[in-house]
Amino acid sequence: MARVISDSCISCGSCAAQCPVQAISQGDAHYEVDPSKCIDCGACEAQCPVGAISQG
């Protein structure tokens, strides 16, 4: 199951920089995970400074 980014995202971009498969990109309101690319490795979740990423 892909990771999801909540509305508490501060759009710092640190999660996108850590994603090994480039599944994270800037969305309209905050960064978003493309579930078709996400390999559920958790690298982004560990990097998020505000805990906005969780397993969907």
Largest sheet data? 2 strands, antiparallel
With strands numbered from the N-terminus, the spatial order across the biggest sheet is 1-4
| Strand fraction | 15-25%
Please identify the oligomeric state: single chain
Enumerate how many helices there are, as a single number.
Answer: 2
Q: Segments where pLDDT lies below 50 for 5+ residues?
A: none
Number of beta strands: 4
Would you tell me the overall average pLDDT? 97
In helices, the fraction of residues equals: 10-25%
The dominant shape is globular
Briefly note the structural class of the backbone.
alpha+beta
Question: Compute the gyration radius: what is it?
Answer: 9 Å
Order of helices and strands: EHEEHE
Cα distance spanning the termini: 6 Å
What this model shows, in words?
By secondary structure, the chain is α+β, with helices and mostly antiparallel strands. The protein is built from two helices and four strands, in the order βαββαβ. It has a two-stranded antiparallel ribbon. It has a two-stranded antiparallel sheet with strand order 2-3. A hairpin with a 4-residue loop joins β2 and β3 (31-33). The longest helix has 5 residues, at 14-18. The protein is globular, with a radius of gyration of 9 Å.
